[in-house]
Design goal:
The protein is mainly β. The protein is built from no helices and eleven strands.
């Protein structure tokens, strides 16, 4: 299993970023996928998840600002982040969640840094 995130960077408050996660080594189209993040000095925080049928779920603080999507033809999951805030600064990880839980993961990538600052 390999998960490779990209798309992070430095953005001003109110700006947008689109993260991508290229997946390989498993049947992507059948797998739920998650995004999680870890801010400096804090624990891992679940951000969003998407089932194989395309149904999506978000942590409350991300609803209305973040959008998760997937392209099964490209084995890629995306996280569109709008209206970014300084508190969104974190390393963002793509992960394969354990069955019946968005909060535990079987596999995750190396992460991509997102910094929101003026």
């Amino acid at each position: 299993v390999q998960l490779v995130e990209s798309g992070g960077g430095l953005v001003q408050p109110g700006g947008s970023l689109r993260l991508s996660c290229a997946a390989s080594g498993f049947t992507f189209s059948s797998s739920a996928m998650s995004w999680a993040r870890q801010a400096p000095g804090k624990g891992l925080e679940w951000v969003s998840g998407i089932y194989s049928d395309g149904s999506t779920y978000y942590a409350d603080s991300m609803k209305g600002r973040f959008t998760i999507s997937r392209d099964n033809a490209k084995n890629t999951v995306y996280l569109q982040m709008n209206s970014l805030k300084p508190e969104d600064t974190a390393v963002y990880y793509c992960a394969i969640p354990k069955a019946s839980s968005w909060y535990e993961y079987d596999y995750w990538g190396q992460g991509t840094q997102v910094t929101v600052s003026s």
